[in-house]
Amino acid sequence: MEFNTSLLGQMVTFAILVLVTMKFVWPPLTKAMDERAKRIADGFASADRAKQDLALAEKASADKLREAKQQAAEIISQAEKRGAQLVEDAKGHAKVEGERLVAGAQAEIDQQIQQVKEALRQQVAGLALLGAEKILRREVDANAHAELLASIKAEL
């Protein structure tokens, strides 16, 4: 065989191989590669969506945390205000109770002062009677002079 004929046969065989490959082998390969590229692109898109969702979730959790901290601060502030109010109420009640006790003690003191004054009047009247009896050196009738003694008591 001659070189040209052999070359021509190889060229025809190669051309048939290329045509059969392009007709039967190449389309499924390109289809498989396109599907693979599409799956990879979908995976990247899904990853991007997941990143966005993660960012949104982080932002939402940060907002919730900030909101919870704010609510906790408000609750603490309200508790402090309520505590201060309770202290003020207790002070007011204690002041009223103290004033009531002072008024009661003052009334008791006034009553004791009156009792002491009355006792002193009795003693002074007795001493005056005794002094007058000694001065006059005579018997003094207490019943006869009761009115005089009552006026002396009133003056003292």
Structure overview:
The structure is a single chain. The longest helix is centred in the middle third of the chain and has 134 residues, at 3-136. Helix 1 packs antiparallel against helix 2 (146-155). The protein has helices spanning 3-136, 146-155. It has one domain (3-155). The chain is mostly helical and 156 residues long.
Sequence-ordered SSE layout with sheet pairings:
Elements: H1 3-136, H2 146-155
Helix pairs in contact: 1-2
Offer a few descriptive terms.
156 residues, mainly alpha, rod-shaped
Question: Helix count, per DSSP?
Answer: 2
The global form is: rod-shaped
Total E-strand runs:
0
The biggest sheet amounts to: none
Q: Please give the share of residues in helix.
A: over 70%
Mean pLDDT: 86
Radius of gyration: 61 Å
Distance between the termini: 172 Å
| SSE succession | HH
How much of the sequence is in beta strands?
A: under 5%
Low-confidence stretches: none
The computed structural class is mainly alpha
Number of domains: 1
Please sum up the structure shown:
By secondary structure, the chain is an all-alpha fold.
